[in-house]
């Protein structure tokens, strides 16, 4: 895989600083039942980096401290971590909202037959990857058969009430562009998704549009095709200062599978951790209440969050 870091540092992204922490985003490991072209984590079925018991306990200690309002679980496929359900149950018992970043096909995997029911029982907000409503685009980006598996997963969630008005069960879909360009207008594309998916009887709460980051697998592909510089220039020239106040790193910290802490999931993939006296910080050492006002580690990949209507784990910023 080609390294994108030399193309991103030193960068020209403006300095930004942290606000109050509200969200703990935890990467439970890079193991995944899919291997997607746009994946900035480089996750896949052969990855063996999975969060272990001791680090899970560190996460639970933070939840018990009352320092965060939301637990955002990601991966890989976070559900493949053996402690996933225990962590969800503990968070919900403590009154912490839980987000599961689900690839949909995991709902159909052997051993995961009760997963959809579990998510409904625990009132977990599901954020589900569906990079397009067209089969050929999804399968080209995520692998043959992924579209049909995703539709099956969506039907399971809809049957339980996810995405249906008045159910209280949130099902947000995530769109990623299939190439080196910015997502279209989120509201307009959401209407298009609703119309197309309604033909298959599928409902959802909202559509979130997220720009592809020029790092890891996607960035390497751009470098190999000679498209990296053009894409980075597109992100830079589309930057809007107005998006800076809403970027997710102001109120979120990202925790890797070993427990080390980063300003965001993208910084995690670029090995840009939070540091104290030159040493990388571990969740077990963190004083979360002292984060407000700290500078955020930035590089030129950050323009992916502020280009156009903006992009974050919660979709468009504008």
SSE topology sketch:
Elements: E1 23-27, H1 53-65, E2 70-74, H2 84-93, E3 97-102, H3 115-121, E4 125-129, H4 135-142, H5 146-159, E5 171-175, H6 186-198, E6 206-209, H7 216-224, H8 228-237, E7 252-255, E8 261-262, H9 265-269, E9 275-276, E10 279-280, H10 303-306
Parallel strand pairs: 1-2, 1-7, 2-3, 3-4, 4-5, 5-6
Antiparallel strand pairs: 7-8, 9-10
Please tell me about this protein's structure.
- This protein has one domain (16-306): TIM Barrel, CATH 3.20.20.70.
- It is 29% helix and 13% strand.
- It has helices spanning 53-65, 84-93, 115-121, 135-142, 146-159, 186-198, 216-224, 228-237, 265-269, 303-306, and strands at residues 23-27, 70-74, 97-102, 125-129, 171-175, 206-209, 252-255, 261-262, 275-276, 279-280.
- The longest helix is centred in the middle third of the chain and has 14 residues, at 146-159.
- It is globular.
- The protein starts with 22 loop residues before the first strand and ends in a 12-residue tail after the last helix.
- The model has no long low-confidence stretch (mean pLDDT 92).
Q: Write the CATH homologous superfamily.
A: Aldolase class I
Q: Residue share in helices?
A: 25-40%
DSSP helical segment count = 10
How are strands sequenced across the largest beta sheet? 6-5-4-3-2-1-7-8
Tally of separate domains: 1
